[in-house]
Amino acid sequence: MSEACACSGPEAGGKRPAFFGRGGWLLLALPAWVLLYAIIQRLSELIAFRVLGLTPRTHLGEAVAFFFYDTPKVLLLLTLIVFIVTFLQTFVSPGRVRDALSRRNPGLGNAMASLFGIFTPFCSCSAVPLFIGFLKAGVPLGVTFSFLVAAPMVNEVALGMLLAMFGWRIALLYTGTGVAIAFLSGLVLGRMNMERHLEGWVQDALKAPALGEVQEERPTLSGRIGQAVQGVRDIVGKVWPYILVGILVGAFIHGFVPEAYMAGLLGRRSWYSVPLAVAIGVPLYSNAAGVMPIVEALLGKGAALGSTLAFMMAVIGLSLPEMVILRRVLRPRLIAAFVAVVAFGILLVGYLFNAIL
Amino acid sequence: MLIEVFGPGCAKCETLLRNAKAAVEQSGGDHAVVKISDYAAMAARGILSTPALAIDGQLKFQGKVASPTEILDLIKA
């Protein structure tokens, strides 16, 4: 849900341009991408130290070099990753996930919902219809919550960015712990019998009979590629301001914040570093891609991995706008339980990884 | 024909509504376009992701902003 309304579903309709029209364009785009990616480092140094005449190893010089290095890097990575992810998403749809999860037992259902949450396309505007649609089809409340937690928490774009920027170990840690939090919080919330804390109209809507069946069309290959191109346009077009802000913050941390200070604030030895990371992260509304430059700078400055993961998960998985949307269907007590359970899970992950890594 | 656009009112839903109106204009026919932002109505129609579009009561797609050309093709079909 962190991808505020920038998702697109697979149900394509209508004619698409011929595959080779787009294919030819893509064949040119890929080498251009590789070439650009290869020269960013030198280009950033050229701009910072030659064109702008800054001195290397000074605060300002390093911050500016970071900015000119990270901006094209994050944008290029994001474009490629969003293309791949949106293409893959045309093979899954919320409808199919709902059918797979309906009338599942807690346990297996929670596990499946947490895994499905990684790749299923849906945006914050769809959270309410999706929530009701799941319950209406007989998906248990706890299983629905596992899905609602996993979908933003284990963000597919964040996963791709982590993999590209920090390697498979951190990507796997992020995914594994996110899935575990979604699984457990759904299990806990399911046990609490929260059905009566749904808003009244939701309870009415659940009782109302369904009107007819929804037909889903199978998209063609060119349709899938078209969706992926559209996804890149939508998402990159929408999140670039967040990325720029993220990179500015990252550049500031990279250039100006002393390592000793960061290691003390978000280091593994400080007991308060994990709750602090969560407390800073929750009100910070950003996008998965926008957090990456900050994460990059934090890790570079010696912040502990557990605290950094907790910060990232709080930003992506527990944002205030998302709570505002969920408030349409959930009564305050259920919202509070939801936030508390997820925040507790994030804290646990933070402490766990600070302790073992 | 009756063309219904479903969505809570986010940017994507508004774009789809505009595209649907543009498609109706291009078709030259006398079709009604209505916007439905009531969540209960969406739930009743089995909509899981927005924006969605239905023609004469039949849901054509969901979770996608279709272009005017795509919607025009659906109207003509």
Automatic annotation (TrEMBL), chain A:
Show the stretches that span the lipid bilayer. Answer: 19-40, 74-92, 113-135, 141-164, 171-189, 239-257, 269-286, 298-320, 332-353
Highest taxon of the lineage? Bacteria
User: One GO cellular component from the entry?
Assistant: plasma membrane
Q: Tell me which Pfam families the record gives.
A: ArsP_1 (PF03773)
Q: Describe its membrane topology.
A: Multi-pass membrane protein
InterPro entries in the record:
DUF318, UPF0718_permease
Q: Which UniProt keywords apply?
A: Cell membrane, Membrane, Transmembrane, Transmembrane helix
What family is this protein classified in? Belongs to the UPF0718 family.
Name the UniProt record assigns to this protein: Permease
Automatic annotation (TrEMBL), chain B:
Tell me the Gene3D superfamilies matching this sequence.
Glutaredoxin (3.40.30.10)
Bridged cysteine pairs (disulfide):
10-13
Q: What is this protein called?
A: Redox-active disulfide protein 2
Instruction: List keywords of the entry alphabetically.
Output: Disulfide bond, Redox-active center
Looking at the record, the residues that make up the Thioredoxin-like fold domain are 1-76
User: InterPro entries from the entry?
Assistant: Thioredoxin-like_fold, Thioredoxin-like_sf, THIRX-like_proc
State the active site: 10, 13
